[in-house]
Amino acid sequence: MSLSTPKVSAQLLPLPLRSNANPIIPSSQFTPFFGSTLKSRFNAPIHLSSPPRSIVASVSDALKLNNNNLTSPSNLLITKEEGLVLYEDMILGRTFEDMCAQMYYRGKMFGFVHLYNGQEAISTGFIKLLKKEDSVVSTYRDHVHALSKGVPARAVMSELFGKATGCCRGQGGSMHMFSKEHNVIGGFAFIGEGIPVATGAAFSSKYRREVLKEADADYVTLAFFGDGTCNNGQFYECLNMAALWKLPIVFVVENNLWAIGMSHIRATSDPEIWKKGPAFGMPGVHVDGMDVLKVREVAKEAIGRARRGEGPSLIECETYRFRGHSLADPDELRDPAEKAHYAGRDPISTLKKYMLENKLASEQELKTIEKKIDEIIEEAVEFADESPVPPRSQLLENVFADPKGFGIGPDGRYRCEDPKFTEGTAQV
Ligand SMILES: Cc1ncc(C[n+]2csc(CCOP(=O)(O)OP(=O)(O)O)c2C)c(N)n1
Ligand SMILES: [Mg+2]
């Protein structure tokens, strides 16, 4: 069933924790939102007097099955090979980020570093379905998106160390992963900043196919961003353009309930972000972002829809970050009960359990993967540590659109190498 088929209302994909079954929210309390222990400052969710302009979303049939059906062999959502790929990618993301924390506290990295622990099912569930030519746009929480898209761990680690062998030659750092080769077209530090870039990438794909008649240009762009970013104007502008021009893009909201220390339900008039899709004439879907198999099913439909030229989708993935906003955040604001609730829904343990119960892998096979990834990460750290720092002459490269006008002197050398250039200004 395609996402555009208006047969299924969003209620068929109930927000899983909105019921009294939520273990951490007493039923007497006001409408809980996901696993948040906070109450909305405002009163009940707004009920529109008229129904939304287009009927919201369907999800793949598989998702409508209950959990029992999902575990029956005839309904398995993945093959063994697919499951191993997903498991390996999630372990890669988690292990990489844990190592980053260690290296950051040892002083090997500079500036802010935002980790992705807890959110792996989203990166893996979406990006592992992409072709090499498809594009990914991320935020400052971008290491794992780059890894899932195939940027080698050593190139990402080296970038974090600010070394010349990093994927941006040490000029980007943690928040600006980029790889032309892998079509990772940026991590962006300003929130919402990547959404128009992703929209432009999707536009170029459509332009190449429809105007330049490149028949194989069916490339899809995924734009990843957070719940807090959905209160930013660029989000709405781009939803509008993407729907208007039926662009091949999927807007993937990683709703981890928090924007630094601001609770999503305190900052947003209607916290159900997926509902904003139909307002612009595109499907909006909510999915459990702690379950890679569910994410993957929804992603398959949304990516397929984009590739077929049927237009954009908005997917809201309910998730949680297991660490503070950045490694500089002591993470004292969030309720321990909320953290414990989501820790119990760790996406890696969930996939592992599914694979073992359905005999898709043995403990030994999964351990072998973990060991392989440990070795890759160890090697990445050694590589980054031993790599040279960029030459001083690289400092102003890619900073100015016309470097001849500013960064490079008449002798063709970077002006930062000219002692007079830096006299009286910041020393470089
Ligand atoms: C335009 C802009 N305004 C403010 C900030 C400061 N800021 C950094 S992260 C952040 C919160 C973003 O939260 P969310 O979109 O939910 O992403 P998450 O960190 O949860 O992944 C804010 C406001 C920024 N980076 N850019
Ligand atoms: Mg957030």
UniProtKB/TrEMBL annotation:
Q: Which cofactor does it need?
A: thiamine diphosphate
Q: Which residues form the Dehydrogenase E1 component domain?
A: 89-390
Protein name (Swiss-Prot/TrEMBL): Pyruvate dehydrogenase E1 component subunit alpha
Species this protein is from: Cicer arietinum
**Assembly notes:** Tetramer of 2 alpha and 2 beta subunits.
Matching PANTHER family: PYRUVATE DEHYDROGENASE E1 COMPONENT SUBUNIT ALPHA, PYRUVATE DEHYDROGENASE E1 COMPONENT, ALPHA SUBUNIT BACTERIAL AND ORGANELLAR
Q: Top EC class per UniProt?
A: oxidoreductase
Cited function: The pyruvate dehydrogenase complex catalyzes the overall conversion of pyruvate to acetyl-CoA and CO(2). It contains multiple copies of three enzymatic components: pyruvate dehydrogenase (E1), dihydrolipoamide acetyltransferase (E2) and lipoamide dehydrogenase (E3).
Highest classification ranks of the organism: Eukaryota, Viridiplantae, Streptophyta, Embryophyta, Tracheophyta
The gene behind this protein is LOC101497839
| Any one Gene Ontology BP term | pyruvate decarboxylation to acetyl-CoA
